[in-house]
Amino acid sequence: MSKRDYYEVLGLAKGASADEIKKAYRSKAKELHPDRNADNPKAEDQFKEANEAYEVLKDADKKAAYDRYGHAAFEGGMGSGGRAGGGMGPGQGDFASAFSDVFDDLFGDFMGGQRAGGRQRASRGADLRYNLRVTLEDAYQGMQKTIQVPTSVQCGSCSGSGAEGGAEPSTCPTCSGMGKVRATQGFFTVERTCPTCSGLGQTIKNPCKTCGGAGRVQKERALSVNIPKGVETGTRIRLAGEGEAGLRGGPPGDLYIFIEVAKHELFERDGVHLHCRVPVSMIVAALGGNIEVPTIDGGRSRVAIPNGSQSGRQMRLRAKGMPALRGAGQGDMFIELAVETPVNLTSKQKDLLREFEELSEDNNPESKSFFKSVKGFWDSMKG
């Protein structure tokens, strides 16, 4: 009986790409797996036929030879123009090697999504996150802060071994220390996590009474954290080895501190720059004058207000903003004037303002320009 064309076996057209070949083989392997075809006596032979086809077509050199010479490329005596893949016929390849590409697809859920591996005597501790809220002043100055972190630390009674008195754990009798056990699944032998030691490869005859065999205990630790100048909300600080202790003497995880800078009563932050809204009286805005404004370093700066200043006018104080994180330089501070209308006027003040208004026909250019435009608009509507 002549062999079927390898492309036909996998349901492909000649010239199929490597990805198409791999995808087709995965589909065929799942479809023809003997465990799924107990009622089909031909399934195992068809499965082997698909495996043989994939062994050839997945290899670029073998595929090129097959495309040129067909099955004769692997039957010997084909002359100097072809390659037989190192002298090994397509049916002689290692089946486990060919099927490794689809092994995870078929048994990923059964094995927890991981390939079988060696034992894991000790596991690394988990990384921890700590949210730290600081003031804008703290972010400006930088600081050393002590925080209390609840975490797992190495058990002092057993020195992290998990065994009473610090004794060494013994090899798991079920898996012989491998952390995995093998089970036959029809045509395959599958490894899974050892149920006795949970994959650790070791068991403890007399667990430590303090930690219950885990090798770590819960405890709150005080840590000193250096908050650099210029930190912003979202800045992350890593403290290596300050996370959760490892299981049974494994290395500890890391601690990640996430910074949140609280909103300030006076200043609004924009990167390295600060904004401050400063109210000024109508008189100062009109006549000009000097005012004092606060700065983030706790000081004050004297600012000259030009006469005729309007609400929303901004003025810059250079290098009065926030320091740049991990870099040189400092941002600026922007003052935004808010001209304040007086309230709770006395009768005399009202009379003075009315008199001032009568004399102010040419002192409000913006109002004059606006109402001139309004009159033009109304006139155009009438027309």
UniProtKB/TrEMBL annotation:
Zn(2+) 2 binds at C172, C175, C194, C197. Gene3D superfamilies: DnaJ domain (1.10.287.110), Heat shock protein DnaJ, cysteine-rich domain (2.10.230.10), Urease metallochaperone UreE, N-terminal domain (2.60.260.20). Pfam families: DnaJ, DnaJ_C, DnaJ_CXXCXGXG. Its main location: cytoplasm. CDD domains: DnaJ, DnaJ_C, DnaJ_zf. It is found in: Cytoplasm. Zn(2+) 1 binds at C155, C158, C208, C211. Keywords: Chaperone, Cytoplasm, DNA replication, Metal-binding, Repeat, Stress response, Zinc, Zinc-finger. Its cofactor is Zn(2+). The J domain is necessary and sufficient to stimulate DnaK ATPase activity. Zinc center 1 plays an important role in the autonomous, DnaK-independent chaperone activity of DnaJ. Zinc center 2 is essential for interaction with DnaK and for DnaJ activity. Participates actively in the response to hyperosmotic and heat shock by preventing the aggregation of stress-denatured proteins and by disaggregating proteins, also in an autonomous, DnaK-independent fashion. Unfolded proteins bind initially to DnaJ; upon interaction with the DnaJ-bound protein, DnaK hydrolyzes its bound ATP, resulting in the formation of a stable complex. GrpE releases ADP from DnaK; ATP binding to DnaK triggers the release of the substrate protein, thus completing the reaction cycle. Homodimer. This is Chaperone protein DnaJ. It comes from Marivita lacus. The gene is dnaJ.
